[in-house]
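Case study: 40S ribosomal protein S25.
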Amino acid sequence: MAKAKAAATSSGGKAAKKKKWSKGKVKDKATHAVTLDKATFDRIIKEVPTFRFISQSILIERLKVNGSLARVAIRHLEKEGQIKRIVHHSAQLVYTRVTNAAD
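Here is what the predicted structure looks like once written out:
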């Protein structure tokens, strides 16, 4: 009788509270520019050649532009001679600013 009373008071096992799973963290959608307007272009021309380390991901993060715009901007700056390539890899292109002492 004592065992039955003890079993009724302490509900163990599956009868206990069921674990609630968290819904997970939701990352905010990035709102990057997909077209190049005059203000963004001027900012790219002015600021990017002063960066010590230049890559597509750096431009996306700092200037809030699309990945394709970042690639186009990097190609344009390299063609003008304002930045120079350090590493050429199929996935990641790494550039740096042009210094007078270099070359």
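For the exam, be able to explain this: Strands lie at 54-55, 83-88, 93-97.
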